[in-house]
Amino acid sequence: MRRILAPALALAACVTAACGDVRTPETKSDQKAASPSSAFSPMDPNMARASSRQTGECSIDLVNGKPAGEGIVLRAGATARIEGWAADRETKSVPARAALLLRGSDRSYYAYAQRGLVREDVAKNRGIAEFAKSGYAVSASTEAVQPGDYSAQIVQETSSGQTECKTGKTIKVTAQ
């Protein structure tokens, strides 16, 4: 996990592909998922702009239990639960490690995601059986996040390197 969002993080843009199903992903007790973050952490924006590979697919489907729109509004200091799916089409895999990156013009923040949540709808829609566990959930405080507009991206560590998927969503963090 250290490699995915270490200060020398390499990120890439990708084609955003949303599945459209906004039901809550299932969590099974036998799933081995990375522990999610409890708060968004600052990230050096120069490091966040490094690039690597562009093959991820992802979506933000739910924010605090409600369907995510194009523009998402979160209050600074509140805890947000963001759910969706992310996978790597090139390797036809679901990376075990991922994080939600809030990329701003002069600052960026990240929070680790719980991975491996069941998303049979994504596997069926994409025609790739391995995507059945492509679901993720991030439940993190925005206490450290400065008010402003951020693009939402999912960063994944794959067997062939790191990918960054642009979700096509904007997250606006408002003052407390």
Describe this structure in words.
The chain is mainly β and 176 residues long. The chain has a single domain (41-174), classed as Sandwich (Immunoglobulin-like). 6% of the residues lie in helices and 43% in strands. The protein is built from two helices and eleven strands, in the order βαβββββββαβββ. It has a six-stranded mixed sheet with strand order 1-7-6-10-11-4. The chain is globular and about 45 Å long. It starts with 40 loop residues before the first strand and ends with a strand.
List the helices and strands and how they pair.
Elements: E1 41-43, H1 45-48, E2 56-63, E3 66-67, E4 71-75, E5 79-88, E6 97-103, E7 108-112, E8 114-117, H2 120-126, E9 135-141, E10 148-158, E11 161-174
Describe, in short, the structure shown.
The protein has 176 residues and is mainly β.
Helix content: under 10%
Provide the gyration radius in Å. Answer: 15 Å
Number of domains: 1
Principal-axes geometry comes out as: globular
State the helix count.
Answer: 2
- CATH class category: Mainly Beta
**What is the CATH architecture annotation?**
Sandwich
Q: What percent of residues are in strands?
A: 35-45%
Structural class: mainly beta
Largest sheet: 6 strands, mixed
Order of helices and strands: EHEEEEEEEHEEE
Oligomer: single chain
Instruction: Flag low-confidence runs.
Output: 1-35
CATH topology: Immunoglobulin-like
* CATH homologous superfamily placement: Immunoglobulins
